[in-house]
Amino acid sequence: MIQHRVTQYIEKEGLFSSENKILVALSGGADSVALLCILHTAGYRCEAAHCNFHLRGEESNRDEQFVRQLCEKYKINLHTIDFDTTRYATEKHISIEMAARELRYNWFEKTRKNCQADVIAVAHHQDDSVETILLNLIRGTGITGLLGIRPRNGVVVRPLLCINREEIIHYLQSIQQEYVTDSTNLEDEYTRNKIRLNLLPLMQTINPSVKNNLIETSNYLNDVATLYNKYIEEAKTKIITAEGIRISSLLKEPAPEAILFEVLHPLGFNSTQIKDIASSLHSQPGKQFCCKEWRIIKDREFLLLEAVQSVSKATPPFQLIREEQEYTSDFQIPQEKQTACFDADKLNEEICCRKWQTGDTFVPFGMKGKKKISDYLTDRKFSISQKERQWVLCCGERIAWLIGERTDNRFRIDETTKRVIIYRMV
């Protein structure tokens, strides 16, 4: 009996107990109606939540009316809400599907807290999981994407993953329970529907058991993923440092590209980029790879990872405090790099602070000849990322201080100095 199988699955996966309150996401379709009926009949404390997205005209209102009547029949408390889904999608620049998903899950969580429910039960079943596996496979995915839909994601639980769509319809017929049909599910419009209506039937002509085989494979891969993820987490601790991903440590691992995928894919790097990054590990420093929010720089020893927005900052990440005083014989020049002292009379042009530029030169303190800043930073073994973050203090067109590093010898304090100017980084 389906109800027994579902309750057994709930216990096996530890989704919730008889003491918990369950908020059931109820659309009015066969799956969610079956979920509500099974849980209610099994004696679980349920409330229901229904979203009217107003995307299908009168059909949307029909669904809401049906849901109200169903909950009255079973004496189940119903929460409803109306969404202007199209406007939300336009404002957020996202698809209608994504907009509906964001709206409903945000509202489900808010409603769950308000009614003090322990979990949100949604009606995904085995066929949905099969479609998800194929969808991820078509788009390109890691091992996690081949696991299908999992029974729990935080407070969202899926008690029907132990049964398929055909069994759900048969169950509703056996208890003579009606449901509504979303006409868009019958249209060959979205990728998931193409899989459901076209691809899966074609695959079943090759192997009628393809759905069961995919589910069994995903269950097997779930155990494989447990071992895989354990290895990945251990590998991350070996390769990730405060400076970045240590290339030598990464290359010692048996599957460097797989580790890179698991580290970088969640940040927004796609499979092709990750392959290119893996190929660059043996090449010269300097290559850069960008996604929307992050940038990877191939340096000598590390893959440097930084947020894109931090690269383009026009203001320095520090303040300079200026102090001027008389110079006396007992004046002690501070030794820390965050402080710079200059002869006030030599610092006689407009002072500004900027990032260093290609071609910039200065005369390092204690030297007589000019040196390119790029060469100085290379000699100091600065990474590409560190070089990009280097600022200079200018006196007119001349550089007086490579901030935090070294002052220019032309502005040094000497026996003729009468007043000193001190700059401190804070």
UniProtKB/TrEMBL annotation:
Grouped into one coarse class, the protein's main location is cytoplasm
Q: What is this protein called?
A: tRNA(Ile)-lysidine synthase
Q: Which residues form the Lysidine-tRNA(Ile) synthetase C-terminal domain?
A: 351-423
Q: Using the UniProt record, name the top-level EC class of this enzyme in a single word.
A: ligase
The record's comment about this protein's domains reads: The N-terminal region contains the highly conserved SGGXDS motif, predicted to be a P-loop motif involved in ATP binding.
**Source species, domain of life:** Bacteria
Q: Name one GO cellular component term.
A: cytoplasm
Stated family: Belongs to the tRNA(Ile)-lysidine synthase family.
Job description of the protein: Ligates lysine onto the cytidine present at position 34 of the AUA codon-specific tRNA(Ile) that contains the anticodon CAU, in an ATP-dependent manner. Cytidine is converted to lysidine, thus changing the amino acid specificity of the tRNA from methionine to isoleucine.
- Keywords carried by this UniProt record: ATP-binding, Cytoplasm, Ligase, Nucleotide-binding, tRNA processing
Q: Which NCBIfam families match?
A: lysidine_TilS_C (TIGR02433), lysidine_TilS_N (TIGR02432)
What is the E.C. number?
6.3.4.19
**Catalytic activity as recorded in UniProt:** cytidine(34) in tRNA(Ile2) + L-lysine + ATP = lysidine(34) in tRNA(Ile2) + AMP + diphosphate + H(+)
Give the Gene Ontology MF terms in alphabetical order. Answer: ATP binding; tRNA(Ile)-lysidine synthase activity
Q: Name one Pfam family in it.
A: ATP_bind_3
From the Swiss-Prot or TrEMBL record, state where the protein is found. Cytoplasm
GO BP term, example: tRNA modification
User: Where does this protein hold ATP?
Assistant: 27-32
